[in-house]
Amino acid sequence: MQLGMIGLGRMGGNMTKRLAERGHDVKTYDPQVESTAATLGELRDQLDTPRSFWMMVPAGKITEDTFQTLLTLADHGDVIVDGGNSNFHDSQRRYADAKEHGIHFVDAGVSGGVWGLENGYCLMVGGDGGAVAQVEPVFRDLAPDDGYAHVGAAGAGHFTKMVHNGIEYGLMQAYAEGFEVMKQSEFDLNLHEIAGIWRYGSVVRSWLLELLHAAFEKEGGELEKIRGYVEDSGEGRWTIAEAIAEDVPVPVITAALYARFASRQDESFAAKVNAALRNQFGGHAVEAAKQST
Fold it and tell me: Active-site residue 161, yes or no?
């Protein structure tokens, strides 16, 4: 089928290649990358009606600006797909806005990262059945076998991806903590080797573990060249906020998010407060702060 891909970054670029390899006619627009169209208007004109646009741009202002521009360009019956990591509340609002213009809106949660070109992308899709069906040939060819589902109404795709990423936070943190315990132990453990054997037969085997083994392979068992600074995309925060709204306890995901916060501090003020209090009530020794040079 024919598709207009907007955004040719690490994900959008590889998705375009995967679709082209499977016979789809993909027109493209990205102001930073060589594309078939120089403007969104030109992209619209390159597509036959009913058109299918796929936004693969960062969540937030860029997505909102692109969506609003498409509303002025698209015709009745066209479909706009948001494949970025948008908040599902925004997706529900955009669905309603598009519907007022006679345009369909579909939210697609996408997982697969830079490996998606080769392995395929897991797709969690929300929206009306007719709109999803219009783009379904693309969904099926982007995904590996059994890696795509229409999970529910508008917003359900991005909601499901949000929870997916929250779970990912917890899994990553569990691996991180376990490997640090082994690194600090009295045994001279080969962490690269252990990550390798855990990939086979172990109950903790996973794709994340395979990626950790690959990281040890590339960077060395001590990961010397990597700073322990971990950002978050925002979806862990959204997952926790929804859990609070639903009165659902999510201690693992919450702790994993806080661990990422802690990784960004050169020196924690909270730790200073703890040290000062221990000194005050128990006379415990405190260490002098490092002097800046």
Answer: yes
